[in-house]
Amino acid sequence: MNAPTSKLPPKHTNLLAREKSPYLLQHAHNPVNWYPWGDAALAKAKAEDKPVLLSIGYSTCHWCHVMERESFEDESLGAYLNEHFVSIKVDREERPDVDKIYMTFVQLTTGGGGWPLNVFLTPDLKPFYGGTYFPPEPKHGRPSFRMLLERIVDLWKTRRSDIASSASELVDRLKTASVHEPENAFPTGERELQGAGHSYMHEYDPVNGGFGGAPKFPRPSQPLFLLRYAARFGDPEAVKMVLHTCDQMAAGGMYDQLGGGFARYSVDEKWLVPHFEKMLYDQAQLVQLYLEAYVVSGEARFADVARDILRYVLRDMTHPEGGFYSAEDADSEGHEGKFYCWTVAELKTLLTPEEFSLVTRYYGVTEAGNFVDHSHPKPLTGQNVLSLAQPKLLSPEKALLESARQKLLGARAKRVRPHLDDKVLASWNGMMLGAVARAHAILGDDAYGQAAERAVTFLKGKLWDPTTKSLYHRWREGERDAVQLLDAYANLLAGVVDLYEATVDFRHLEFAVSLTESMMAKFYDPAAGGFWQSSQDTPHLLMRVKEDYDGAEPSGNSVATLALLKLGRICARPEWVAAAEKTLRLFAQKLHQAPQGVPYLCIALDYALQEPRRVVLVGDFACGSTRSLIAAAHGVFQPHKVVMGNRGPVDPFAKTLPVNEEFTRAFCCTGTACQPPTRDKKVLREFLSAKK
Q: What is the pTM of this model?
């Protein structure tokens, strides 16, 4: 159900109307004369000698909407910006390389960050002042946005030399902060992994699960690493922490109890009240986490959550041809969470008295509610985010609850749905591809295998140029961008490797090899190690950086390192393994001193420290035994393994293994030393489960 739209032509239209980014298009009819990032804006700033307002956000960003409504839609403020500034809008999801530079600047100068990100630059792109959300009126010791603009204009007129000097000094600080010393004194070994595990476990919340306090992000790289830490060091407490965290997150309001999928984070420490937008990268990583929780524990409830997330993604976030959309908004009809919340009065109207009594108890619904959207001038009252407040049910109550759930879903489907950011990003699609492929391998649902195949076909058709071997980052409405980013290559490579290990289809391995060769050529630094976030010929960048922070998304360096370690073993490409190891050495000081910032890189380091066990499948891959053996191999928690076939660009030793044309057999190998071939799933599981 969509909100009615006016047929009157918009009063204002700026250059963003020509763009494909849903975020930029949201601002196409502001009175601000926005420019996209590129030649025209920068030429105008230089020609007119004006400061640049660089405003960065994304289409499902709640506070971006608030600042647009309060400031960027204001006629007088728009006129002031147009007179004194050149204003540029950037979608951080399309251009994480631009966002990284200026976010780092704001974090260095203010101690905080977030979106919307508003930074003031000289015409040569040097930042001299920045922050995040600025209110329309002064509050909490912060100036209004108009006051800030007037102060910037005054400084630009009266203290230009000071601005230029300060900007140059700040850029030098920025460049220094981004430099990594290639010859680190610290080894990359078990000491770093043990320190990381202790650090994470120290932050554990024993009551609510998760790590740290409010606001609480799922950050799946952290619990995924702890499962590997537990396996390496024999620490069952780490496993308990991860499983408890998974249970608590799935019981909270951050998890959509009706429609599936997770919101971006919880504003409290209990996972109860979410920041409601749903991001593709969260769904992908959380599928991986719940799959591993299921494999480690054998508890079906974790597999059920993974299936529920996938049900949501395949239903609501998938392009008809197979690619995955980026996000759904927090807001509906101008109110955060309105699509998801319920009042007692609504429930009484929809449900029978018996259903109402059960639903209010089960989901913790009260007359007062548990959520208020304080960012709206007229907040709704009595709003309830559903969570599993009292989840134990008697057998007769299960059917009653399901009846009530269907009524609620039907009623919710008639509401105005939050905005869908329908751009397709290679980076986030790579994450989701890997999650769907592993779900197919572990849960055995053919629908997941079909979804993965459709997704990789979509991405190869829309974003991959086989002639130039170039992977572009964004596709929307028939058009792709022209940007080359490490995040796109690394995450899609990791997803394709997961798909290959779930299918042993050599065509996927061939694609992985092509992606790797291009990624190495465009982004790898052979002198110092590590990968640049942008290609060398990317225009209008103040500097090239090597991203090393595994936050809500793992960094391109961390993802590339793990993918290279796996693919280097599968294809016998020692130069790829060496590049991964050199990258680990480049970031060794970070691994040693601040492992909280690099949990996914810790996962890569854990993988690098021992030879992986190889499951090599040979024979007739069309037969049912292949599927069965693949499922057995993935049904064991063994993070130090590769699953591979004997066709395509694999290690030549795999092609020497004897083939029986009638059925598939598995060779269990360490290095090139293999046990006799087997069709026995128990033998396969025992090989993968055995201690060192």
A: 0.95
